[in-house]
């Protein structure tokens, strides 16, 4: 019975991601601060969320033919290489790290890639698999992998990198409106009582 429920939930989530009639999102409760519900959340990621092969192919444009039909890149190692740079950070030991999510194809360390957004060709120095604050050097990445690349100097967040012979450019991210959030926490009990009187809710 439990396996049937998991299979049904996973099927509904995958259908929703593929463009189903209504979004379907499992909701779990927990507290990261108190380490409550973290393991069930990680299990739910494995059980319910779609794999790279479950989602529809990523579509983009060939920058050399902007008016042509959109190019699709399925999550397949044999397809031309394409990836999205989704995060840039600086590491004190290795320098700038570009976090990439590989949509299709295979990329090896030392390979040359093309950035159609900037119109530049770059060479990947090293590839790292990140584990919290630990790094593991790897030789290549495959479709669906997430890794950090060293040596990409002109790539920005939201840029596409791809094979130069089979160029494709995915849609750039739209930056959300700026917002800020703050929180105050009174320390002395007397201050807390005063705050409760002013803001009882």
TrEMBL record:
Residues 179-201 are annotated as: Disordered. Residues 179-188 have a biased composition (Low complexity). The keyword GTP-binding applies. Keywords: Elongation factor, GTP-binding, Nucleotide-binding, Protein biosynthesis. Transmembrane segments: none annotated. One of its GO terms (molecular function) is GTP binding. GO terms for biological process: ribosome disassembly. Residues 95-162 form the Translation elongation factor EFTu-like domain. CDD domains: EFG_mtEFG_II. Gene3D superfamilies: P-loop containing nucleotide triphosphate hydrolases, Translation factors. Residues 189-201 have a biased composition (Basic residues). This is Elongation factor G 2. It comes from Geodia barretti.
